[in-house]
Amino acid sequence: xxxALPEGVELRGPEAPDVVGPDALAFVLDLHRSFxxxxxxxxxxxxxxxxxxxxxxxPDFLPETRxxxxxxxRVAEAPADLQDRRCEITGPVDRKMMINxxxxxxxxxxxxxxxxNSPSWxxxxxxxxxxxxxxxxxxxxxxxxxxxxxxxxLATLVVRPRGWHLHEKHVLVDGAPVSASLxxxxxxxxxxxxxxxxxxxxxxxxxxxxxxxxxxxxxNEVFVAAQASLGIPRGSIKAxxxxxxxxxxxxxxxxxYELREHSSGLNAGRWDYIFSVIKKFRNRPxxxxxxxxxxxxxxxxxxxxxxxxxxxxxxxGAHAIxxxxxxxxxxxxxxxxxxxxxxxxxxxxxxxxxxxxGTWVAHPDLVPVATAVFDRVLDGRPNxxxxxxxxxxxxxxxxxxxQATPGEVTADGxxxxxxxxxxxxxxxxxxxxxxxxxxLMEDAATAEISRSQIWQWVRHGRIxxxxxxxxxxxxxxxxxxxxxxxxxxxxxxxYVDFLTLPAYDRLD
Length: 508
Description:
Number of helices: 18
Number of domains: 2
Distance between the termini: 18 Å
Largest sheet: 8 strands, parallel
């Protein structure tokens, strides 16, 4: 066993002293003991709020924070290497993908420990190791057939830790699993913060799945404590918050305010946002959505959310980052490529025209496409934060206008959700968190939509349970475990909050 573990820490995964050595674990231990009680309180508040919503309550802008929304304040100015974010590429933290993403020509690479990562102990530890090597520019890979090395011009590195609702079962603190958020963040900042600052960058993060400004406040308290412990200047850490829950959309101003000295903007996390709308209002028939492919960024409730996000960010001097283009180009089907690239270009043109300062892609071949769109709009500027969008005025009713979404539930939609959901879970259980399926990069967020729509459609009589079972029966025997898990999270009477929770129990 690894020697000299901090008192109260138990390691249940294979030893990795270069990543989870005693000093690093002691740092994580301090964070966990200081902040996990509050994390648990906030998760309790989430559950209480959800019960009220399921009972009929609808969210609204908070009356108690009106002064913040009406106040005159701005977030701290972004550091030099986060001023220009016109194209950001995202991906998991495996070595090959990290090298390709850093070399892709994108301005930013988001290294994802959350939705694009299957959090086996090996993946989590290797991801932290890869992150450390990437920061020091020593990361490389030789496969025997090909050699991967970093080039001269690299994307700025930003890390997404797992959300507040997740835990890391391989590390126990005082007998209980450590918070996955504090574990991922703690290791990343412990190993890399000083090195990044010495290289002229900094410890930059994306924060997922927040539902309230109180959860943002907790992150800010974690940042302050981590910086003090490491002896680095306060404000060195910068965080972009993904607005990917319907409740967070009502607290965007407050979230920026809580993180203002550490804030680097907000991102329109479109796929998780759709999942959140389904999940929070799953008992209400007026919130039933049509096929996933029909829920575009142009439908009323999505348009309202993105318009408000841009206005909110720019009013406070923060960057607004657009949503994911999940298409994966195919070298075998030029016609599929042409049609898809037209849709990607149209999507990015809409975002750039709306005032976004940048956008997300999932594949290096899309970097030039998205970059060219924003090049035309930015016209030599690093961003368009100065475009205030004062004409935008969105109400709670606008954000909740899901009923106005055009489209219908079709047999093809059912088939796609079942097929994609099961195939993604099959990949996830095998250790792959970002899976190429039917020329799209699927991750946990898109899988959540797939299974949640099935649950919603069955619940409200749009489809029959037997129709889903028939689609499941059409899948091969190699998908048996994934099928069982999909049935659990899509067809059970009681809705499962996150499919990654029961799925995680099956991972080593």
